[in-house]
Amino acid sequence: MPNKNFNSENLELKDTLEINFTLNSVKRSVKVPCTYTLLDILRYELKFTGTKEGCGMGECGACTVIMDGGVTPACLVLATTLEGRDIWTIEGISAKDDAKPIIDAFVARTATQCGFCTPGMVVASYHLLSKYVSPTDDQILEALSGNLCRCTGYVKIIEAVKAAARDLNTVKKEGRDA
Amino acid sequence: MLTKKQNLYSVVGKKVTRVDAHEKIDGSAKYVDDLAFDEMLFAKMVCSTIPSGRIKKIDKSRALKLKGVAAVLTAEDITGLNKIGCVVDDQPLLAADIVRFTGEPLAIVAAETRAIAEEAAGLVDIEYEPLEPVLNVDESFSEKIKVHPKGNTVCHYKIRKGGDIDDAFSKSHAVFEKTFTINYQEHLYLETQGCIALPENGGITVYASIQCPFYVQGAVATALGLPFSKVRIIQCVVGGGFGGKEDVPSEYAAKAALLAYILKKPVKLILDRAQDLMVSSKRHPMKMEYKVGVTRKGKINALKVRALADSGAYTTLSTVVLFRTSVHFGGPYVIPNVQGDIIGLYTNRVPCGAYRGFGTPQVIYAMESMINIICNEMGFDPFEFRRNNALKKGALSITSHKIKESCGLIETIDKARKESDYDKRKKEFDKWNADPSKRTLKGLGVSSIFYGMNLGAKGWSFDKAGSHIQISRDGSITLCVGNVEMGQGAKTVLAQIAAEALGCEVSTINFTNADTNVIPDSGPTVASRTTVMSGNALLDAANKLRKKLIDAAAEVLKIRANQVMAKHGRFYNIKDSHQFITFSDLAQKCYFDNIGLSEMGFYVSPKIEYDMQYGQGEPYYVYSYATAVSEVEVDKKTGDIRVNKMTCAHDVGCVINPMLASAQVEGGCAQGVGYAIMENMVSEKGHIKTLGLSTYVIPTTRDFPEVKSIFVEDKSKDGPYGAKGLGEPSLMPVVASVVNAVSNAAGYQFDHVPVLPERVWEALNEKRSRDGESEVK
Amino acid sequence: MLRNFKVLTPSSLNEVLYVISHIDQPYRFLCGGTDVLVRMKDNPAYAKVLVDISKIRELAKIEEHKSTYVIGSGAKHDAVLAYAPFVEKYNGLVEAVAAIGSPQIRSIGTLGGNIGNASPAGDSIAPLMAFDAEVELRSHESNRIVKLEDFFIGPGKSVMKSNEIITKIILPKFDGLRSGWKRLGQRRAVTISKVSAALAINCVKHPNGSIRVADVKIALGAVAPTVIRARKTEKFLLETPNLNAAAVKQACEIACRESRPITDIRSNTEYRSEMCGVLLGDLIDRLVFGR
Ligand SMILES: Cc1cc2nc3c(=O)[nH]c(=O)nc-3n(C[C@H](O)[C@H](O)[C@H](O)COP(=O)(O)OP(=O)(O)OC[C@H]3O[C@@H](n4cnc5c(N)ncnc54)[C@H](O)[C@@H]3O)c2cc1C
Ligand code: FES
Ligand code: FES
Question: A13 to chain C: which residues are within 8 Å by CB?
Fold first, then answer.
């Protein structure tokens, strides 16, 4: 067996594990099979069903969440790699004040049809707008390139993101002026 | 046009935001996979791994030994009939002795978790005796091998119009001939197929992602041997359908229901993406032989078409889909002599069925390509030529349907030309293409279409719709219709129609999702029929309620009923708008006066006469029309294609909601562009190889063009507020116009869709060696 | 859904090395997981044991040394893209990594995973190979440096032994090289390359107007069982007295012949082979002639 410098627990093959992470700013501890992905944990274990599964293979973006500040496909994050991470899902993001302009713009521009891609789109848009206050067209296209939508042709989604950016900027400016 | 309507109506024609937007945007909308029930089991289908063969043995023992497996069911466990066909009885729910395509389900497993169910499905051992498969329409047509004992023809529609066709060709000034082929298209709804079946009240309740609750009800009742009344179907929020959730979900619902019925536990069946791509229906691949005769003046004089459609292993909806093909293969044009043979053929491939446009984008592609060839070779202007041959009031379609009303085709042609700035762009592009230093070639392509509304002559018996409206005592309103919201915006448009008729605000309306216990059979949510059918059914109910409300308001306001005006939640004196009663007060008054404010509505599609033998008569009661113009750019060295812009003019009768209408057009363009230049389903020896979203690719944000949508409103007398459908027409002209644009850029008419860069590159090379040009600069 | 495998979670590189030298079953590393998990979902027999190295900090660093940059195998694509010296001097690498998958994939996928995966279509590989990058392979017992060009032996296959791990990617420093990368895919974003090419080149302009190639490195992706260096093309270019249009054309033709592509669901042999030349020509145009 490993010598004393090793943490033997880490070196045992595991079936289930207990993980601690932060979900929408709340600390969580779950005991799950080690075969679970973050998406399985969210949907089956914690019943956070806003994050969707469109492919399970990292190809569609429907499962997009924010992990440690990066847009992440929840379907490709294995439970073991989740320990200590900071996760934001659509449930948490849509309740945040700074997401309101995005939600409002999506509603006002009908940036949803069947809606299955929408939570992922909103998360990716939120991430984009928290990185760039006034994204260029190219930055918008790039930021949403990993989120497939079969219904909208993206037109209204892109319009909504632009409108939200304008809105966020006026809110910020007003905030500064006040 | 719009401004006039704005005055006329208070809600119809307005940019009302989607009534279901919030729940979809914040993630709270419940799709079927978001639901869970106590003790719920997970199901997985066991599918054939060969395209054709006899089943010698199904051994469940290894699967049953796995811990957590509740059952493995095969054909012999079916309590009702082992049948699923929705039009023809040629398809088993679970294959019993023969498998006819790779992916055909033979068994169904239920287990405590999704992972166990998947593992168990892999442990069901099946022994086959492989048979020689039929893998394309030519093989099938030869009948050397029969996919079904009765032979390989699924259906054969004939259109015969005018005189002897060969005679007509000999009298034509010029005759053009070409054969086109077109591949599958996969719906690729972002939410895969799925359902949950629950044992309830001695019967079964199914929650599902579906377009047609009533089809599912019939399928489940048949499979289980239950009366319809014991089978309740409740629609969940649908994550995209596009035709793919028309008949196909019945198959999955019946399987899940069988497990739930036998095991007496809730059972969830969600297809994973690879399985969905493998087993669910697709748009029919076709081989289309076209021959067109044209007069010196550019009139289409004769058209002969033979189209062979790959229906796959079972009929499913082929007969109705290909009926549509038979009506639309000549495009929206007046053609005196027509001979058409549209033949559906069985193959040992995945069954093909409904997909947005229902068997028409394929033949439109072929017909519009022919027109492109004709215009290029004979020097006609593409708009003038189409205009010159266009259907208009008083003209006869290829089925000799005399167009009586609502025909805005020519207006769409003119608007598309103008709004796309075609003439200016054409000049610019010609100049660009003449410059050898340019890396790309640019092209413009045009396509016009018409599209029969509702189910038409082949489906008239299904063409009805019910509705229910209930006004509560506080004035809030609950609607239920039998056609479903699948993303197209049905709820919003229908709420607008109801609000306009009732005089209430859209925000006071709530929807109950389609539920077979609540609403009468309303046929399928297909054929762009929801606005018209459910809209009219709602108007039927709403008008009954409106009368009661107006009478009550007249009593309160002490005026005559014909002096009451209802708008935006107020009933007021037409002469004095300050004299009014609010909708909610009125509802309350009715409640205490014991006036019932709950009504059913019903609507039946206009009756039409059609002769199936020669394909002559009125196949549909009215048509939508559209013209699209595409701008593309092709890389001379790589063949890479970029669609830069689409301009689409649609005659939809009446635009109930401009924002949703343009959203439909944009979505249709996205699917059409994908179909035209990107989506390539590869199959090898009867196995689909592109079983993921990184091999079967659809457009991303970076692949999508700018879209300009224009609406023409030539009202239809039978549509609510004059409306016709848009859901499918939005996609239909796109493929042809994009391919024509690519062809015009490359100087080569592409005869296969999708047009991939490899093919464009090849064509450009051939052209270069033909033209003796040494190389691209 | 994933099933039937177990996970080991060593907490340091030492533990990793210990584990992989003692483990008696086939295993795979789990770094970003964007490749290994996709394959396991497709085929549950792909790996029965995963060794999770995603949390090993030592593997995730990017450092500047005297004559090299050292990229930890666990460095995420996003980290490579954010590293200023690369943005400045290794344009070819940045272009390639920026095109890998989607923003989602780049935020968890790693360079080590892209190499470890050994796909001929791995997009970071061509520019790294063109820059003469090397990888450090470590095991409990030994430590060796292998040229990336010698690392791959076939699709999914490399010289790495079962008790080894890629710890670093070593990127030499250069003066004067301009570099670029280009690819063709099935669509414009989130696409696996049908063909890709990386070029690093340094040209000297003679007062008489002729252009001599002082240094050139070319690698081609998705056109052979592994990513390859186009050595013959490089040699031709180095020996060319004047890089004029005819010479470029000839170089592109040589590059086409150096490729050995296959036909698969994404493209076909003839096209892929021909496109090697087109991509190379485009890169030369851009990097040498500024077009
Ligand atoms: C939707 C999608 C799109 C993609 N697009 C692209 C693309 O455009 N271009 C492209 O090149 N790739 C693409 N990929 C593939 C993949 O994302 C990349 O190859 C990525 O870099 C893999 O990194 P990872 O850390 O996720 O690898 P992992 O999945 O963790 O590992 C991949 C393989 O490498 C091995 N490995 C990992 N780390 C090491 C190590 N330190 N030493 C030795 N072996 C190791 C593993 O054992 C495994 O076999 C895509 C994947 C997806 C899902
Ligand atoms: S479900 Fe994760 S990317 Fe599709
Ligand atoms: S709204 Fe349906 S997939 Fe985007």
Answer: 6-8, 49
